[in-house]
Amino acid sequence: MKRLLVAVALVGAMTVSALSVQAWAIELPPDIAKRGSLKVALVPNYPPMEFRDPATNALSGFDIDLGEAIGRKLGVKIEWTETSFAEFMPSISTGRVDAILSGFTDYASRHEIASFVDYLRSGPKFFVQQSRASEFKDMAALCGKKVGASRRTMFPAEIDKWSQKNCGSNPIQFVGTDGSADARNQLRQGRIDAAVQGNETLPYLMDLEPGTYAPVGDPFATQFTGIALPVKEKALQQAILEAVDALIADGTYKTLLAKWKLNDNGLEKATINAGQ
């Protein structure tokens, strides 16, 4: 009788546990659950967020690790789809991909097409060549200088806003570049005096090229990086939100932040910024 009671208790405990797991399961849209995979767009040229490892050519970076961890939480495979930056929004609106996870900034101007699950806080930051650091003891020294940044981002608008507020009749001379790598190249060539990069990536790049760059001041705006999802896919948005929050809760998110030196950019909770 004692053995029978123990067996019944064990079966009861297993049933309760199974029900508990089932109750907390993250529910995916039926088509994605049936397919067993999530199609995710990226452009692997923004270390340490996403890039190809020079030694192996394998996809690497914080977003890659985060995406794979989200896939495990959801019980699906991540199908990484390389595309161009210009094709991000069209790929979402036409259904070619389910999500964009590629250091993509959450701007209100993008909410008509995509909703964002924000998972990182960042901001643009000025930096110069280390050899000229003594010329730029503070951000005011940037007034009247040539400052480069990717024209595909909101950095130009943020630079202009900061310049209007702080430089008066001696504004920053903005130089648009073809991405952050081009901005750094022009800086090294002396074609610009300073450049702007997101503060989530600058420390990593400074480690890659020690003694090359020096930051100037603090981030001069606040931005959020998010996972872009089709604006009408509410169930998918909720599933991704719950997966990211689960990774924050179990410590995986914090471990990845430390691995890629993004500790100062982490959030305590993911949020959805949705379109109409």
Question: How would you briefly describe this protein structure?
Answer:
The chain is an alpha/beta fold.
Question: Count the helices. How many?
Answer: 9
Question: Which percent band covers the strand fraction?
Answer: 15-25%
Principal-axis shape equals elongated
In this structure, how is the largest beta sheet organized?
A: 5 strands, mixed
Question: Mean of the pLDDT scores?
Answer: 90
Instruction: Give the total of beta strands.
Output: 14
Question: Could you please describe the fold and organization of this structure?
Answer:
The protein has helices at residues 2-24, 30-35, 62-74, 88-93, 155-166, 180-189, 202-208, 234-249, 252-259, and strands at residues 37-42, 45-46, 50-52, 59-60, 77-82, 99-100, 114-122, 124-129, 146-150, 173-177, 194-198, 213-216, 223-230, 271-273. By secondary structure, it is α/β, with parallel strands linked by helices. The chain has a five-stranded mixed sheet with strand order 10-9-11-8-12, sandwiched between helices. A three-stranded parallel sheet has the order 5-1-6. A three-stranded antiparallel sheet has the order 2-3-4. A hairpin with a 3-residue loop joins strand 2 (45-46) and strand 3 (50-52). Helix 3 packs across helix 8 (234-249) and helix 3 packs antiparallel against helix 9. The longest helix is centred in the first third of the chain and has 23 residues, at 2-24. The chain is elongated.
